[in-house]
């Protein structure tokens, strides 16, 4: 959540920033109205409590009346507090002044392009055709078992995925990241504290009503609250984690778009980077995480580009966001494989994660998250490394995990 004082003291600035995010500024007005009423009632309650303390034994009737009034005020204060909290959970983070201004993903800015696109002298296949011909995944069988947009991943593609994950963990651990296998179920109040209210409102999350739990859409959702309600030591920052989990998303609103094969599915695996950082170092940490993601892509020798995500396309909780997109020949375009976000103190406020600085002051940390590898790079590998006879060359860096240099027809 945003700092309440930021809205109270700079409402016009907040309105301007929200407009850049295509978010109605009326949320600011609604918050201020509820907040002013809340503060007025709290002030009245405190005055009555002070009066109550001054009353003697000969004022029992007056004390009784005051008690009833205070109880009524407490009820009204609670309702206003809940209303105010609900409003602020629907206000996204404020984009940094460095973020390019734009209405949607068409106005994201390409920072750099790396690597050369492959030049094929034969008719290429997309990953769906390759997956079917090489028996690497089976959408039809998964559809019979679980419904649309699920897959059985098979044969060498399983080994390629595990290779990606092992490579990411190996490289991260060398840099001091702590490996984690986190829960894949999370309480609604935790998701809201993490700034994922929109994820819930738009029905993106799968819900288990009997348990009042949600399936995570990323390991970010359960790694952020790992230090909830803690006060960390400044000397321990940054605390860096790499977490592997299966992720679940409805992908609401994308029906009929990118739904073939493995691009937009309801279930996928992902290794996620998460960092708890000193506020003065979060820009530096953001750069570090993006460079880590790029180094992984370079090891795969895949052509990619880095995007500076514009205000209208940023994730709800972000101050700034960079995406990496791999070139996918089968679609003749770039598609996102990695994202990397700096959320400032937005998530830390929601989950109450703080640190004590060298002067003894307790402050909120900054949190950052980024993709190490999901399953999407598998698509880029299949399409960029395909051969004329329909096989797929295994990238050099993954051969030790796959156990062979080339994938041919299997089974």
Automatic annotation (TrEMBL):
Catalyses: tRNA(Sec) + L-serine + ATP = L-seryl-tRNA(Sec) + AMP + diphosphate + H(+); tRNA(Ser) + L-serine + ATP = L-seryl-tRNA(Ser) + AMP + diphosphate + H(+)
- The segment(s) forming the Aminoacyl-transfer RNA synthetases class-II family profile domain are 169-395
Q: Which InterPro entries match?
A: aa-tRNA-synt_IIb, aa-tRNA-synth_II, aa-tRNA-synth_II/BPL/LPL, Ser-tRNA-ligase_type_1, Ser-tRNA-synth_1_N, SerRS_1_N_sf, SerRS_core, tRNA-bd_arm
Q: Gene3D superfamilies given for it?
A: Bira Bifunctional Protein, Domain 2, Serine-tRNA synthetase, tRNA binding domain
Gene Ontology BP, a term: seryl-tRNA aminoacylation
Matches recorded under SUPFAM superfamilies? Class II aaRS and biotin synthetases, tRNA-binding arm
Query: A single GO molecular function, which one?
Result: ATP binding
Question: EC number(s) in its UniProt entry?
Answer: 6.1.1.11
Q: Where in the cell is it found?
A: Cytoplasm
Gene Ontology cellular-component terms listed: cytoplasm
Does the entry feature the keyword Cytoplasm, yes or no?
A: yes
Give the keywords, sorted.
Aminoacyl-tRNA synthetase, ATP-binding, Coiled coil, Cytoplasm, Ligase, Nucleotide-binding, Protein biosynthesis
Q: Into which EC class is this enzyme placed?
A: ligase
Q: In which pathway does it act?
A: Aminoacyl-tRNA biosynthesis; selenocysteinyl-tRNA(Sec) biosynthesis; L-seryl-tRNA(Sec) from L-serine and tRNA(Sec): step 1/1
Q: Which residues are involved in binding L-serine? A: 249, 272, 369
Keyword Aminoacyl-tRNA synthetase included in the entry's annotation: yes
Protein family according to the UniProt entry: Belongs to the class-II aminoacyl-tRNA synthetase family. Type-1 seryl-tRNA synthetase subfamily.
The protein here is known as Serine--tRNA ligase
């Amino acid at each position: 959540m945003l700092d309440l004082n930021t809205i109270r003291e700079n409402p016009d600035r907040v309105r301007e920033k929200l407009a850049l995010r295509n978010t109605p500024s009326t949320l600011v007005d609604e918050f201020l109205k509820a907040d002013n009423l809340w503060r007025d009632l709290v002030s009245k309650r405190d005055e009555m409590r002070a009066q109550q303390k001054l009353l003697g034994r000969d004022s029992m009737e007056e004390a009784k009346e005051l008690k009833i009034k205070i109880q009524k005020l407490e009820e009204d204060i609670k309702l206003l507090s809940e209303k105010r909290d609900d409003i602020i959970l629907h206000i996204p983070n404020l984009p940094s002044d460095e973020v390019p201004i734009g209405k949607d993903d068409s106005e994201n800015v390409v920072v750099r392009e790396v690597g050369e696109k492959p030049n094929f002298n034969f008719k290429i296949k997309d990953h769906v055709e390759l997956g079917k011909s090489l028996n690497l995944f089976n959408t039809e069988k998964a559809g019979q078992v679980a419904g649309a947009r699920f897959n059985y991943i098979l044969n060498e593609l399983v080994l390629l995925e595990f290779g990606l994950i092992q490579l990411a963990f190996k490289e991260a651990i060398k840099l001091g990241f702590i490996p984690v296998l986190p829960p894949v179920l999370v309480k609604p109040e935790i998701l809201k504290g993490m700034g994922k209210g929109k994820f819930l409102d738009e029905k993106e999350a799968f819900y288990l009503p009997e348990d009042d739990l949600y399936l995570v859409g990323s390991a970010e959702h359960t790694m952020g609250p790992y230090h909830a309600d803690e006060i960390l030591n400044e000397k321990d920052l940054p605390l860096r984690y790499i977490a592997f989990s299966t992720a679940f998303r409805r992908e609401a609103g994308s029906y009929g778009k990118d739904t073939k094969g493995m691009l937009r599915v309801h279930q996928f695996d992902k290794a996620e980077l998460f960092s708890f950082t000193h506020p003065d170092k979060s820009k530096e940490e953001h750069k570090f995480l993006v460079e880590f993601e790029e180094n992984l892509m370079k090891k795969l020798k895949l052509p990619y580009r880095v995007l500076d995500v514009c205000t209208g396309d940023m994730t709800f909780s972000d101050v700034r966001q960079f995406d990496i997109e791999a070139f996918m020949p089968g679609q003749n375009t770039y598609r996102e494989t990695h994202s990397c976000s700096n959320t400032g103190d937005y998530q830390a406020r929601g989950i109450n994660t703080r640190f004590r600085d060298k002067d003894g002051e307790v402050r909120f940390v900054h949190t950052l998250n980024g993709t190490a590898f999901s399953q999407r790079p598998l698509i880029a590998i299949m399409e960029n490394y395909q051969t004329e006879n329909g096989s797929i060359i295994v990238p050099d860096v993954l051969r030790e995990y796959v156990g062979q240099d080339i994938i041919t027809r299997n089974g």
